Amino acid sequence: MSEWSSRAVFVDQCRSVVQGYPRFNATIYDGDTAVLDLILTAKKDLIGSIAVTVFCMGIVCVFFIYSRTGVLIVTFTISSICFTLVGSLSWWGADMDPVTIVDVLIATGFSVDYTAHIAYKYYKLNGDPAERIKQSLREMCSPMLQHFLEQA
């Protein structure tokens, strides 16, 4: 079996069969058990991590952005990015292995960072809303672009 997800399901099925015969005191050994167990729980863990991230960022934004609308926009943006990212991975047929989970969590962190900084800058500025958007994007795009290029 060359697919890690297939191996993980196979080892789990073998464990289920062995559990049906406790009198033999048999165990299933695979040197990659730690990774295979991670693969089996990856989807559930990823969804939980994203939900906690969105919830915590909503709470943090309440303290720094003194506008319900701003908090809702940031929370909606983060949720939208997360659902789009996970949906795209599913659509592409990507396996949810530990490396993919780390990549998704890093991408979620970037989206949280970018949207929170732009929204915070917007609500700190005074004046016309269109001018505030221009100014916050003007001030935040350069650091965000530098950060992106460092990570690439």
From TrEMBL:
The chain crosses the membrane at residues 46-66, 71-92, 98-116. One of its GO terms (biological process) is endocytosis. Keywords: Membrane, Transmembrane, Transmembrane helix. SUPFAM superfamilies: Multidrug efflux transporter AcrB transmembrane domain. Coiled coil: none annotated. One of its GO terms (cellular component) is plasma membrane. Residues 50-115 form the Protein export membrane protein SecD/SecF C-terminal domain. Signal peptide: none annotated. It comes from the Eukaryota. Pfam families: SecD_SecF_C. This is SSD domain-containing protein. It comes from Gongylonema pulchrum.
